[in-house]
């Protein structure tokens, strides 16, 4: 049966089945992961990333595909883990922008959205590598556009997208030497095929109710409630001049009766209505917090620029006693502590490494690493925890670079720079160039200059039989990796470590 229109409900079906399909096949995608090393995390990263976006879509009551796609794009970005996760988030961010303001989609709309997603993803990657998820996405989009020229059936377009993706996936070994050497297709591309297959099944009516339940923190937390409550603890109810803690989230629009959003005039006007004014925005959403005596005036002002997505009002005078009881002395001290000029966030696994980094001057350590890549949102939370005006991020793993860069771009009210440390050793060496008295650009430059001064070795276990750089690697062998290149392999972990150290020396 032809599908000439993709409604909001049908779009949610597509997302639901895709989330189920990538979740069920994540282990298989992991088994293909050989680029750059066979550490088996691409499926996990893509799955966790997609689930955050799917959660945002499936929990929404919006009746417009454009709105749902916006939730998908933002959810994926904030939950993006690893390179494959960040690239897939960019694919669907571009998709979302293409269908913005569309209540439903035609076959041509669907094809155009896939194509726009590819453009966005390629722009986001500094040095695109062919034979990866990017190639699969590009060829799939081309197939979709070709199908849309001859059919108004969205299902026909989606089938063409899947076929194009599979054809491109089969050719990835011809484009990336390491894949051909090992005899596998690209893992990220395979993950994308599973997602597209889910879209096709959802569109055709093959719905699965078995969706992975992700309990991540809410992606778009508007205001840090602990901060505001801690500030209120210091007040006597009689001293509260503006009694209503008022918050709103406005989806900016461009309709005939809507005003153009200009940050400074918007914030300045709200400041005349009260105090403790906080306004943050991106190109799609503006978030507001203000203490005022007239919440309704605040909301009516927000409606002049778009639709109210969330509103919240607390009577601070009535809540004062419960807030005082709830807040501890430590929370009060944290809330009152002034922002430092400079801070450093390092990503490392385990308490021991965390203590080492802190002894070198790191402000906050985020738990994560090779097989536990933090999301963009995790890194943003860590940046906030650093409690500084300017923050350096040390990823200490190449697979975390893109999520760290995305967090740096998404950060508000704090300037963030990434020093691209590939290993724990590089991260620690980078701290030798750090000075809390220097500015952000100087610290980034000096710390980056330290990176070539260290040779890093690590031991990890293979998850499949393969051959790389002439080395025959068996499943469960221990691999010695020097600066990202597999140099030794052995069934015994200690022997692999000793052989690796010999090569490093």
UniProtKB/TrEMBL annotation:
Any one of the GO BP annotations: glycerol metabolic process
UniProt cross-references to Pfam families, sorted A to Z: Dak2, FakA-like_C, FakA-like_M
Domain of life per record: Bacteria
SMART domains attached to this UniProt entry: Dak1_2, Dak2
Record InterPro entries: DegV_domain_contain (IPR050270), DhaL_dom (IPR004007), DhaL_dom_sf (IPR036117), FakA-like_C (IPR033470), FakA-like_M (IPR048394), YloV-like (IPR019986)
Record key words, sorted: Kinase, Transferase
GO MF entries: glycerone kinase activity
PANTHER family registered for this protein in UniProt: DEGV DOMAIN-CONTAINING PROTEIN DR_1986-RELATED, PHOSPHATASE PROTEIN
Protein name according to UniProt: Dihydroxyacetone kinase-like protein
Species in which this protein is naturally found: Lacticaseibacillus paracasei subsp. paracasei Lpp126
